[in-house]
Every structure is written in C-alpha cells, then in structure tokens.
C-alpha cells in the first residue's frame, strides 16, 4: 500500500514537472523569444532564404525600434523580415544610392556587395525617392537586397510599430553560419 502511494506520488510529481516545463516553454516562446524562418532573398546578403533566426519578442515592449534593427513584421497574410531605416519623426530620402536620414548621410556597409553587383549591371541599388517624413507610431523599413525587396518604398508602406513582432538576434541554422544579426 505504501509502495503504491509512493509510485502515485512520484508519477504526480513527474506530471507536474512536465506540465510546468511545457507552460514555461509556451510563455517564453509567446512573450520572449521565438524561432522564425527567413523566406526569400530580400535581406540578402545579411540573411539568406531558409535561415532560421531567434527573435526577441519582448524588446519592443521596453522601447521602440531603432534605426538599423532587423525586425519581423506581421503582415496581413505573411510575416516579413526587414531593416528599420527610419522611425517616428525621421525624414528619409535616397539620392544617387546614398541614404539620407534627417538630411545626414547614413553609412550602410552591409550593402557594399549588393551595390557592387548593381553598379556592374549599370543600375543603382536603391532608386531615388523621398523625402518621406515618418509619422508618429510608424517606421520606414527596407530589405538589404534593395533590387529585390518589397518594403516601405513599394508595397508595404510605412509600418505600424504595433505590427512589429520582434527584433532578430541570432541566426541559429544553418549551424555553420550561426551568427548575431545585429
């Protein structure tokens, strides 16, 4: 009788531990960190098609996105991964392949490879546009592969900050290409 009671107690302890672990995983995944898979080439060469990322979901409950952040945006039918180029109050413009934020040139070393490729084809990587003033509660995003990206310039428009799910932190797969994304 005592042995049977001990077995039931031990089984109940295991069930409680497993339920607790599952609840903890659910809370962490829902509110703190979540996996995400890149679909498409709009962020190449920074991120590649089928890269698997971990996304920090709590960061923007503590503050707003910053210029340069790589973010996951919840669209109507799918999610997008893009780089924040401008935030509320910024004026965004591109002239002769040079990004200007609030009339100051912004260096984008992550674009060097794509710029060389575009220039070898006799085109600019980023066509001229703007100036565009980013209103409160919105941000302006672009993909790093500017020749092949649906973003704030051509389809997504200005992004509601509330639709940003989180910031990309690290590529976790493929393992040989594991790296931070910031």
UniProtKB/TrEMBL annotation:
Q: List GO terms (cellular component aspect).
A: plasma membrane
Record keywords: Cell membrane, Hydrolase, Membrane, Protease, Transmembrane, Transmembrane helix
Q: Where does this one sit in the cell?
A: Cell membrane; Membrane
Q: Which residues form the Peptidase S26 domain?
A: 12-172
Query: Where is the chain membrane-spanning?
Result: 12-38
Q: Which Pfam families match?
A: Peptidase_S26
Main EC class of this protein? Answer: hydrolase
> Which GO BP terms, alphabetically?
signal peptide processing
According to UniProt, the reaction catalysed is: Cleavage of hydrophobic, N-terminal signal or leader sequences from secreted and periplasmic proteins
Single annotated GO MF: signal peptidase activity
Keyword Cell membrane in the entry? The reply is yes
Q: Where is the active site?
A: 42, 82
EC number(s) reported in the record? 3.4.21.89
Q: What is its main location?
A: membrane
Record membrane topology: Single-pass type II membrane protein
Q: Which NCBIfam families does UniProt cross-reference here?
A: sigpep_I_bact (TIGR02227)
By sequence similarity, the record places it as follows: Belongs to the peptidase S26 family.
The protein in question is named: Signal peptidase I
Q: Which organism is it from?
A: Fictibacillus macauensis ZFHKF-1
């Amino acid at each position: 009788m005592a042995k049977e009671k001990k077995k039931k107690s031990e089984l109940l302890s295991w069930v409680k531990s497993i339920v607790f672990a599952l609840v903890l995983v659910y809370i962490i995944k829902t509110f703190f960190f979540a996996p995400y898979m890149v679909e498409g080439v709009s962020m190449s060469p920074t991120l590649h098609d089928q890269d698997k990322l971990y996304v920090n979901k709590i960061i923007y409950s503590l503050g707003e996105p910053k210029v340069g952040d790589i973010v996951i945006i919840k669209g109507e039918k799918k999610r997008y991964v893009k780089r924040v180029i401008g935030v509320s109050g910024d004026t965004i413009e591109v002239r002769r392949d040079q990004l200007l934020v609030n009339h100051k040139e912004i260096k984008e070393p992550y674009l060097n490879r794509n710029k060389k490729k575009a220039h070898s084809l006799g085109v600019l990587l980023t066509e001229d546009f703007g100036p565009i003033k980013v209103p409160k509660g919105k941000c302006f995003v672009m993909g790093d592969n500017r020749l092949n990206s649906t973003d704030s310039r051509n389809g997504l428009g200005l992004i509601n900050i509330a639709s940003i799910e989180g910031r990309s932190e690290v590529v976790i797969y493929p393992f040989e290409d594991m790296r931070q994304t910031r």
